[in-house]
Design goal:
Helices cover about 35% and strands about 25% of the residues. By secondary structure, it is an alpha+beta fold.
């Protein structure tokens, strides 16, 4: 009897695609101000809601006094740059509104997040393994 094939829960399927895409995102507050002494939990809640709206999943979230890390599982139809813009925009607007007195003292010029961010792809085989696999594929004659 052959072993039963078990589907990988990380691999998702759409109408015309099978995917397993993850990204590590890092956002830093403007001027590295120590904003997140008591707003980090609320920031996570907001970002989870934004991810749900984009049909993505926030797998992990954490941060320090001036930055946050997110691990996102997303479908190929989602442009990471648009997701990032929404994550940063919605969270900045709501956190400034809900934590006005606390946030104001750490931020300069009304900006919450730095204009830049880090995005890295994660998961899957290492690049060396992928390169070897592609090199070993037969070329058509």
């Amino acid at each position: 009897m052959s072993p039963r094939w078990e589907p990988n829960p990380e691999v998702r399927a759409g109408r015309h695609v099978v995917y397993d895409l993850h990204a590590h995102l890092v956002f830093v507050t403007k001027c590295r101000g120590g904003v997140f002494t008591d707003a980090l939990t609320r920031c996570e809640e907001i970002m989870r809601e934004v991810c749900t709206d984009f049909e993505t999943e926030l797998r992990e979230f954490n941060g320090g006094h001036d930055h946050v890390h997110l691990l996102i599982h997303y479908p190929p139809k989602v442009a990471l740059s648009k997701l990032v813009n929404s994550l940063k925009g919605v969270s900045a607007r709501l956190l400034r509104k809900e934590y006005t007195s606390h946030v104001h003292q750490y931020l300069w010029g009304g900006h919450f997040w730095s204009g830049s961010y880090f995005a890295g792809s994660v998961g899957g085989a290492p690049l060396t393994v992928l390169r070897q696999y592609i090199e070993q594929q037969q070329r058509p004659l």
